[in-house]
Write a structure and sequence with these properties.
This is Bifunctional inhibitor/plant lipid transfer protein/seed storage helical domain-containing protein. This protein is mainly alpha-helical. It is built from 6 helices and no strands.
Length: 95
């Protein structure tokens, strides 16, 4: 799990996510680093924190872009990611 965490953090810094959002009026820039509070829940399967849910809601319009980036696709499509989105009341993106 520590290795997965390290790989994810390294990928966050090496591959910027596409800055595309479904709604052009979205104020939050697409930045996968903003989802770091969710990392433990996504990689370990635990409950997401309030900060994680808040960041997911901010980055929700960006999730399709993240899922199309090979560096992040495995995290967005993981079963734990789906659980985190459900726990935060955010629908899984249909891209």
């Amino acid at each position: 799990m520590v290795l997965t965490l390290m790989v994810f953090v390294i990928l966050l810094t090496l591959f910027p996510a596409p800055n595309e959002a479904a709604d052009t009026n979205v104020e939050a820039a697409c930045d996968p680093k903003q989802l770091q509070p969710c990392l433990a829940a996504i990689t370990g399967g635990g409950q997401p924190s309030g900060d994680c849910c808040a960041k997911l809601k901010e980055q929700q319009p960006c999730l399709c872009g993240f899922s199309k980036n090979p560096a992040f696709a495995q995290y967005i499509s993981s079963p734990n990611s789906r659980k985190v989105l459900t726990a935060c009341g955010i629908p899984y993106p249909s891209c």
